[in-house]
Specification:
The complex is a heterodimer of chains A (about 120) and B (about 110). Chain A is an all-beta fold and about 120 residues long. The relative contact order of chain A is 0.33. The mean pLDDT of chain B is about 95. In chain B, strands 2, 4, 5, 6, 9, 10 and 11 form a seven-stranded mixed sheet that branches. Chain B has a four-stranded antiparallel sheet with strand order 1-3-8-7, with no helix packed on it. Classes of the chains: A mainly beta (about 120), B mainly beta (about 110). At the A-B interface, strand 4, strand 5, strand 9 and strand 10 of A face strand 4, strand 5, strand 9 and strand 10 of B.
């Protein structure tokens, strides 16, 4: 079975500072990995995805993530936080060999951006 | 291209009632999945439909059911509602069963009183 752990349910950063959100996965096979963002009262928006190509993945809104197999991690970063980055972020994993698109999500990390 | 749409956006029901939620996937997408989001349990997979057939199912009681129509639109039904069914129900669409990338709708927020 696959699982995802997001370290830190809440993260507070200053505007202009580095955003680092941690995600570790457990999977018997190299998984596909995703980061989604959820703004209040909205659905999930795809930020970026890793599907076994380049290990450094660039996404929307200046975010990027690096797949590190040895550390079973897929941490999300953004060099400079903006007030609009305040939201909840979810890491998710899927099994590339399984039929279907089921995602297993981490618990989420809520980001607060201080002016 | 229009995104995933869900109706209604908000719903209030009482215990024991049943409810039907609707989802229209992105044009051309044939796979539709449903997720439940609650503060306590987080995001949990309910089921996935492709070509009008349920392909995957999560660990939810039989009160939760769904179906998919020939135009790929999907509905999910919850019967005999319980207070614990209060949640945000999210629908996601994918191109097919191999695409893996899911695009989510805005959700239907269900409150059970």
């Amino acid at each position: 079975a696959q699982s995802v752990t997001q370290l830190g349910s809440h993260v507070s950063v200053s505007e202009g500072a580095l955003v680092l959100l941690r995600c570790n996965y457990s999977s018997s096979v190299p998984p596909y990995l995703f980061w989604y963002v959820q703004y209040p009262n909205q659905g999930l928006q795809l930020l970026l995805k890793y599907t076994s190509a380049a290990t450094l993945v660039k996404g929307i809104n200046g975010f990027e993530a690096e797949f590190k197999k040895s550390e079973t991690s897929f941490h999300l970063t953004k060099p400079s936080a903006h007030m609009s980055d305040a939201a909840e972020y979810f890491c998710a994993v899927s099994d590339p060999w399984a039929a279907g698109n089921k995602l297993t999500f981490g618990g989420g990390t809520r980001v607060l951006v201080k002016p | 291209k229009a995104g995933v749409t869900q109706t209604p956006r908000y719903l209030i029901k009482t215990r024991g009632q049943q409810v039907t939620l609707s989802c229209s996937p992105i044009s051309g997408h044939r796979s539709v999945s449903w997720y439940q989001q609650t503060p306590g349990q987080g995001l949990q997979f309910l089921f996935e439909y492709f070509s009008e057939t349920q392909r995957n199912k999560g660990n939810f009681p039989g009160r939760f059911s769904g179906r998919q129509f020939s135009n790929s639109r999907s509905e999910m039904n919850v019967s005999t509602l319980e207070l614990g069914d209060s949640a945000l129900y999210l629908c996601a669409s994918s191109l097919d069963l191999q695409g893996k990338t899911q695009y989510f709708g805005p959700g239907t927020r269900l409150l059970v009183l």
